[in-house]
Amino acid sequence: MSRFLSREALLAWLDGLREGGTVVVAPTLVEGVSLYRQVPVASEIDLDASVTVVSPKEWLFPASHTIFTVERKDGRVDLRENTFDGRAVLFGLHPCDALGVHLMDVPFLAEPADGSYRERRERTALVGLSCIRCRPECFCTSVDTSPDDPTHLDVMLTLVEGGYVVAAASDKGEALLASAKPEEKALSLPEPPAPEKLPTEDLPRLFRALYDDGYWGRLADRCIHCNICSYVCPTCYCFDMRDYPRGNTAERVQSWESCQAPGFTRLAGGHDTRGSKAAKMRQRFAHKFLYFPETFDSQLSCSGCGRCVRACPVNIDIREIISDLKKIGVSSVGSGEK
Amino acid sequence: MWAAEKSRANPLVPLPATISAVRELTIDVNLFQVQFGDGGGFPYRPGQFAFLSAFGVGEAPFSITSLNDEGGPMEFAIRRVGTVSTALHDMEPGSVLGVRGPFGNGFPLDTFKGKNLVIIGGGIGLAPLRPIIKNALVYRDDYGEVVVIYGARTHQDLVFASEFEDWAAVPGVRLELTVDREGPGWDGRVALVPAVIKELQPTVENAVAIICGPPIMIRFVLAELKAQGFENHQIVTTLESKMKCGIGKCARCNIGEKYVCQDGPVFTFDQISGFLEQI
Ligand code: SF4
Ligand code: SF4
Ligand code: FES
């Protein structure tokens, strides 16, 4: 027997949570573009959303957000941290995006944890939706997840005739479902789709061998440093912090940055530790496939969502890079063609 | 003076503190003393750094130049080069700034115990070395001979000049000063730092060399030390890299897989030569 929620019952459950004060963040069409936003009413959720243009990291790690405000008055300085003390449901995460949240948890929750991220994360439940079809750019099964994988989620939904099969994937999820009132039904789950499978085994070792290869320079040549790949990515977490003064007050704002941005690593004196295009390009992929797994004793820092593949204006394609690493790596490990 | 809901929960949020005194060290370097309010402040080790905020302008990392064990106020020697350092230079005693720290591994003082120290600094690079010098003065018996070789462009660019006499007066401590260019008011040595090392030929055996200064100086000093017989593992330096967070998150300071803000900024040349990304 499975627990079943009709489409209406699902929306009623979410509206009930919302009316109880929980923020519901879900894919919704913003001028025709599917993005994760706080929805005023559950019926505005784009339930059929495939992979959104920008990842749901926007909720946990906003594109730009004030960490604290300082105010000067009568010779004193008051510092007020910007806090979030509500509750939220991040709804409609496909398994790749659930893995994406996990891969964001790994660095941000590692002690000393990023305070703003930890606060939002602890107060957010993840409700997932298994995939009924893949897009050509999807490769989640190559990076430790799959179209029906509930790992890292609190609740998992699966689309069936007339509604959803709902399952708790954690205690937090079970508690969240207390108000859902599902029906018990005998239902069989659909066969999940099968995305492209890439040769991701052994990537850190292959990367090490090709670290100084001329490949990175050749690839980087066409990058226009638009940073889009990092912005749409659920696992990219570089950030900047800047002050914005306004009269007697000033805000410190934490915002997304990209390792592809010119000047990202330039010092005040002018020296740049990753000044060349090749060094920048290698950083993006070395971080995901080598540094991250080694630093955090974790899996690769990529969720297989394919967003960067769609977004890059010059067709720099992470799938191709994975295949190339394998190809060049196997044929010429150590030859180090420059 | 200031009121804050003090929370160390977010390591990206600084503690407000007050500039208690400012001392001019050179024409463009000031020494700032920083005082925390009740219950503020934190202990720190030689070689660690902190981010200072000029609220409304921004934040930048600076090495802590005081010695925690002396119990005095926290001190920073800051050269006016960027927007944050300029804003700090424009502040008067009594002004409020933000302090976040301590970050970094600091110098491996335990491995220095019982050894002769060859401390080599260039320009403002003396700032991170000053706590090691002070430490060797306070715990004199823990170390062998201490030679400080310090150079700057002109004698007017030598920082902490008012303390030299006290340092050199301690038995077993030698201070060798040099400048690149002669000028009125200087009758001391005129030579580049590597040349001074060559001249002095510091004992290699049971010694550790600690270098801090501009990258070009480090390069030539390293070559000279090698020529004198120093091995990579006997040479320690601090690396510079663009830093925003200090806690291994903003992914900016890394050189290959090494995060300068957490794994460093202090490395031996043994470690540096093993880096994946060569510098
Ligand atoms: S690197 Fe590309 S495919 Fe991987 S998680 Fe980021 S956007 Fe998705
Ligand atoms: S999206 Fe493509 S062009 Fe833009 S920064 Fe990324 S790799 Fe470069
Ligand atoms: S300064 Fe941010 S990762 Fe090192």
Determine the strand fraction of chain A and express it as a percent band. Answer: 15-25%
What is the ordering of alpha helices and beta strands of chain B?
Answer: EEEEEEHEHEHEHEHEHEEEEH
**Total beta-strand segments of chain B:** 15
Oligomer: heterodimer
Mean pLDDT of chain B: 93
Distance between the termini of chain A: 60 Å
- Largest sheet descriptor of chain A: 8 strands, mixed
Estimated radius of gyration of chain A: 22 Å
Identify the most extensive interface between protein chains.
A-B, 51 and 46 residues
Shape of chain A: globular
Low-confidence stretches of chain A: 334-338
Helix content of chain B: 10-25%
Number of discrete domains of chain A: 2
Bound molecules: iron/sulfur cluster, FE2/S2 (inorganic) cluster
Question: On the 0-100 scale, what is the average pLDDT of chain A?
Answer: 93
Strand content of chain B: 25-35%
Helix and strand string of chain A, N-terminal first? Answer: EHEEHEEEHHEEEHEHHHEEHHH
Relative helix content of chain A: 25-40%
**Sheet/helix structural class of chain B:** alpha/beta
Number of helices of chain A: 11
Q: Give the beta-strand count of chain A.
A: 12
Write up this protein.
The complex is a heterodimer of chains A (338) and B (279). Chain A folds into two domains: 184 residues, no CATH class; 131 residues, no CATH class. The N and C termini of chain A lie far apart (60 Å). By secondary structure, chain A is α+β, with helices and mostly antiparallel strands. The C terminus of chain A is likely disordered. In chain A, helix 6 packs across helix 9 and helix 6 crosses helix 11. In chain A, the strands form two sheets. In chain A, strands 3-2-6-7-8-9-1-10 form an eight-stranded mixed sheet. The termini of chain B are far apart. Chain B contains seven helices and 15 strands. In chain B, strand 8, helix 3 and strand 9 form a beta-alpha-beta unit. Chain B is globular, with a radius of gyration of 19 Å. The interface between A and B is large, with 51 and 46 residues. Bound molecules: iron/sulfur cluster (2 copies) and FE2/S2 (inorganic) cluster. The site of one iron/sulfur cluster (SF4) has 13 residues of chain A, from helix 8. One iron/sulfur cluster binds next to helix 10 of chain A.
